Amino acid sequence: MATTSDFRNGLVMMFNGELYAIIDFQHVKPGKGPAFVRTKLRNVKTGKVIPNTFTAGVKIDVQRVERRPYQYLYNEGDDYHFMNNNTYEQTFILKDLINAPDLLKEGQMVEIVFHAETETALYCELPPFVDLLITYTEPGEKGNTATNTFKDATVETGAIVKVPLFINEGELIRFDTRTNSYSERVKK
């Protein structure tokens, strides 16, 4: 068992029967009364952020989570299959646990976060940026870079994303998986 003095950003603990990661914390010692720790906790499964205040010295149940690199192989409906490149062990996780499943390409490397005690997959994260080929979009207009207007484009994974008006079919774009938005055009 650990206490509030062991708090650090990224620490995962069992709280109210669920896994929470500490996003932010602050030790407070008021002039009157006991010290306490003000925290922001993110639910590991749902991503919901909640504030919580702990009395200083209270015991917490720290949980161990591991980030492991996996390679995406294929999907069958809602089951997405991945392979560990070191052990060649294959695993599958549900579509709901992946932050941007429509942007996954075959052979792409991802990180799957596992709860170490139970060996269950908690969630899967794509790299912050992925490069995708535009397979279909309306023709781009030259000189249309001044406005912040977007149009729909279909990428090689089949996903429909928003891109600026000047992007054409056959171009390679860099897409931010964290915000699900266009980042830049990639030079070939």
Structural topology:
Elements lengths: L1 E2 L8 E4 L2 E11 L7 E8 L5 E7 L3 E4 L2 E12 L2 E5 L6 E5 L14 E7 L4 E6 L3 E9 L12 E6 L4 E5 L7 E5 L4 E6 L2
Antiparallel strand pairs: 1-6, 2-3, 2-6, 3-4, 4-5, 7-8, 7-10, 8-9, 10-11, 12-13, 12-15, 13-14, 15-16
Question: Short summary of the structure?
Answer:
By secondary structure, the protein is mainly beta. It has strands at 2-3, 12-15, 18-28, 36-43, 49-55, 59-62, 65-76, 79-83, 90-94, 109-115, 120-125, 129-137, 150-155, 160-164, 172-176, 181-186. It is flat and about 65 Å long.
CATH architecture name of the largest domain: Roll
Number of domains: 3
Question: Whole-number radius of gyration?
Answer: 21 Å
Q: How much of the residues is beta strand, in percent?
A: over 45%
- Average pLDDT confidence is 88
Can you identify the CATH class of the largest domain? Mainly Beta
How do the SSEs run, as a string of H and E? EEEEEEEEEEEEEEEE
CATH topology of the largest domain: SH3 type barrels
Q: What composes the largest sheet? A: 6 strands, antiparallel
Structural class, judged by helices and strands? mainly beta
Order of strands across the widest beta sheet?
Answer: 1-6-2-3-4-5
Task: Report the count of strand segments.
Answer: 16
Helix content: under 10%
Q: What general outline do the C-alpha atoms trace?
A: flat
- Low-confidence runs: none
Distance between the termini: 53 Å
Number of helices: 0
